[in-house]
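User: Can you predict the 3D structure for this chain?
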Amino acid sequence: MKDKQTKFDAAFRVASQLISEVACLGMAILICSSASAQNLFMSDGFSGIAHDLGHIYKIGPDGVPKTIASGLNGPLGLAVDSTGNLFVASGGGVILKFTPNGTHSTFAIGLNQVGGVAFDSAGNLFAADGGSILEFTPNGAQTIFASGFGRTNGLAFDGTGNLFVTDWGSGNVDKITASGMRSTFASGLSSPFDLAFDSAGNLFVTDWGVCCSGSGGHIYKFTPDGTQSTFAQLAAPEGLVFDSADNLFVVDENTGNIFKFTPAGVRSIFAKAVGFSMDEVAFLAFSLTPGPIPAAIRRHRHRHHHN
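Assistant: Here is the predicted structure, written as structure tokens:
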């Protein structure tokens, strides 16, 4: 755990020194269209060597990766808004915005160690930034939505507007309601990294485990009432995302593979580590397709920010 956290922090420091107006598509993202036409865009993060930074790969339904960019600066979390704009959390405390035609701009600067990002159904962007969660309106206005975490990582919204966050520092998964009320949804994890919901409202969480001791990591499944079970065991699972058919895709850092799990739990290798590697911190974000939420939820969310 200490080696992993040191590795994560070192990667952030390298990215801070090399920040530029270039970014990738986070660690991986599934662009939601039709199930048969979905493409998986993935970056291998950064190696900490100036001439060998993060790459972007486009992986079609056939699982064959194609390099579409390289030499990028520490891409981390990412999310897509309802109009197809891609938001990327990049090293050095920056969030970049990419339009569908590839034009990019800086959406936010001056952050600390921004990781996971996610959109709520009203189009507001939330970012895990060190021990806090920041909220950005579509025009970029920033507020602190929640704070006091050990080290935030993954973010995901459920179907009713509750935000779930992995707290690497405490080993918890916390739940924050639309009105800003925070509670512990799950505890006792080793190194919770990322999380995503399936269509039935079950929460899946990757946990590195104490990988340096050889015990390996796990993917845990939590039902809406919090009942926990082990869904799968991998060497070092990190980012994860569901496609529109409820297939789960998971990055395994130690092998450099992306595994696919069907809704029935059948596992296969979707993309092999040929031509790319993921030997550093891997981060994914689930691309949501936001829709309208009740006005009452929006009012409460902006009225009650708990710092």
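Helices lie at 2-17, 295-303. The chain has two helices and 24 strands.
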